[in-house]
Amino acid sequence: MSRAVDARIADLLEGAADKGVCYVPRGDDVDAVRRALSRRVSSGAAVSPVRGLFADAREWSSLASSERALWIARGLQVAHPTWTFCGPTAALAYGVDVSDTLVGRTHVATLPKQCGSDGGAVARHPVLDPREGVEEVGGLRVTSPQQTVLDCLRWTDFPRGLGIIDSALRTGLVGKDAFEDYAQSMMARRRNVERALSDLAWADPRSENGGESIARGRMLLLGYVRPELQVEVPRVVEAGEPYRADFCWVRADGRVILGELDGRGKYVEEELMGGRGIDEVLSDENIRGSRFTLYDVSLVRFSFGLTGRPMEFAALLDEYGVPKRGSAIALPEGTRMIPDWDALRRSNV
C-alpha cells in the first residue's frame, strides 16, 4: 500500500470516528478503497465489525460495547438510509441504559409482512408500524420512544428489562402512566406485553444505573423485599451532603440492612464518575461504606457478578438477614423503609 493511499484511508477512518460512525466506502473508487481497507484489516490496523463497515483498530478497542453498537448502527444507516432501528439499538440512541448482553446485534424494524430474523449481526423484527411514526435521534431513524421501550421489555428477561424501564423513566423518555396506557393498548397487537407491564410494576426511576437495576431485579426474582433505593444517610464526621446507600431494607423488628453494589462495572459512564478516575471513585465508595458503620446497621456489599449466581447471592442476602416478601420479618408491601437515623446513631462514649 502506498503512503498516499495509507494516509487517505487513515483520514477516512478518522473522519468517521469523529462522527461516531463506522466508515462505509462510497464513491467512484469504492472498489480500490475496499481492497485497501481489507489489507488494513488483515494487518490488524483496522477492524470490520460488520461486512462493509470499517473502523480504526485502536479507536475501536477504546469503545464501550454500547458505543460500538451505535457506531455500527450509524454505519448501517449510511449504507441503508431507509432502515429504521428498534429495540435495544433504538434504546441506545435514546440514551437508555441497555445491558451489554443485549447490544451484540443491531435491531432493525421491518413491515409486518416481511420476514423477521433472530440470527446474524442484524436482527430484523416485523414491528414497523406507520401509525407509530419514526424519530430521528443521534443520526439514526428509530421507532418511537414508547414502542422502543415496549419492544425491549417484550424481548428480554425481567432483570435486564428492569434496567431499561428504570432508565427510561429516570431520563423522562417515557412517563409511567402514559407508558402503561400505551402498553395496554398494544395487548391485542403484540406478544409478551404482559411481561412489559410486569416490569413496569416493579420499576423505580431512583435507580442510578443499569447495574443497580439488574441487581435489584435479581433480588426480586429470588423473593426478597423490594428495597428502598438511594436512601440518604446523614454525615456524622464531615460536613456536606448526606451519603446515599444503593439499597436499604428496614425489617419488622427494626433492624436495618444497607446494600452496596461494588465493582468497576458499576462505573462505566463518565457522568457517574464526575470526572474522577476509577481508583478515586472506588476509594470514595469505600469511605462512604465505612461511614455507614457509625450507625447500628448491617452493610452487605456485593459485586455485580455475584448477582448472576442465584444460590450464592441468596446465601449472602440470607446471611445478612435481608427479608423475603411475606415473611414474619418483612414490613407490609409498599411500606416506605426510611430508617430513624437518630435512634441508630452509635454512641461514641
Notable features of this structure?
43% helix, four-stranded mixed sheet, 349 residues, alpha+beta, 11 strands, three-stranded mixed sheet
Descriptive account of the structure:
The chain is an alpha+beta fold. Helix content is 43%, strand content 14%. The protein is built from 15 helices and eleven strands. The strands form four sheets. It has a four-stranded mixed sheet with strand order 8-9-10-11, sandwiched between helices. A three-stranded mixed sheet has the order 3-4-5. Strand 9 and strand 10 form a beta hairpin. The radius of gyration is 24 Å and the shape is globular. The protein starts with a helix and ends in a 5-residue tail after the last helix. The model is unreliable at 265-276 (pLDDT under 50).
Describe the main β-sheet briefly. 4 strands, mixed
Ranges where pLDDT stays below 50 over 5 or more residues in a row are 265-276
Give the number of helices.
15
Mean pLDDT figure: 89
